[in-house]
Amino acid sequence: MQQLTLFSESTPVLPITYYPDFLALEQANELYQHCLKLEWQQNQIRIAGKTMPVPRLECIYGDTGCDYLYSNSVFLKPLTWTEPLSNLRDRITALTGYKFRIVIGNQYQFNSKFKIQNAKYKIRALKSWQCRLD
Question: What is the pTM of this model?
Fold first, then answer.
């Protein structure tokens, strides 16, 4: 019996490209300090009929109308792009050709009641499903 394949290649190519020197250390540190000052919020999520705090602080910045809903209960409305986030978005667009409409930040706390072990700031750019991409 022959094994069926899901991909045309024997090893799938992931759509990820790593740019190790995308930001100089000073630029990365400045962006990190800027992210510490973003408007973080503690949202509520509804799971199995119960409302509870999301186990992280969140923020969203982006284009007007690019609202984001997840878990069918947490609605995020983007704040206006800050200048550093806008500059980062433009730099990513120039490098990749992709236009991003929002950026979502997640901030995890040390020793929180949710017992998250690592504190880290994740800025991940997302193409919003709710917005038409140019």
Answer: 0.71
